[in-house]
Specification:
Layout (H helix, E strand, L loop, with lengths): L39 H41 L2 H10 L1
Protein name: Cytochrome b-c1 complex subunit 8
Membrane topology: Single-pass membrane protein
Family: Belongs to the UQCRQ/QCR8 family.
Length: 93
C-alpha cells in the first residue's frame, strides 16, 4: 500500500477502504410496533395551553395598552368635533 495519489477514488460513503468498524451496535424498533400518534391529542392540548399561557403577557399587555390609547384618542377626537370641543380648541389657539 503506497502513498495516496491525488484525486484518487476512495470509495463510496461508508466504504472508504479502511478497517471494518467493530463494537458499534444499532437498535431499532419496527415501524409496525411503534404507535406514532399515541397521546397526540392529549399532548397537543396541554402543550398548546402551556405555550400560549407562557407567552400571554407578551401579547396581552401591549394589546391592552393599544386598545386603551385608541379608545382615548377616539374619545378626544369625538370631543374636539363637538361644539364644546371646537370652543376649547379655538380658546387654545
Amino acid at each position: 500500500m503506497g502513498a495516496p495519489e491525488p484525486h484518487g477514488y476512495m470509495g463510496w460513503w461508508g466504504h472508504m477502504g479502511g478497517p471494518k468498524q467493530r463494537g458499534i451496535v444499532t437498535y431499532a424498533v419496527s415501524s409496525y410496533a411503534q404507535k406514532p400518534f399515541a397521546g397526540a391529542l392529549y399532548n397537543a392540548f396541554f402543550n398548546t395551553f402551556r405555550r400560549v399561557s407562557s407567552q400571554a403577557l407578551y401579547v396581552v399587555l401591549p394589546v391592552s395598552g393599544l386598545v386603551y390609547v385608541v379608545n382615548k384618542a377616539q374619545a378626544r377626537n369625538e370631543f374636539l368635533y363637538s361644539k364644546a370641543g371646537r370652543e376649547e380648541l379655538e380658546a387654545m389657539m
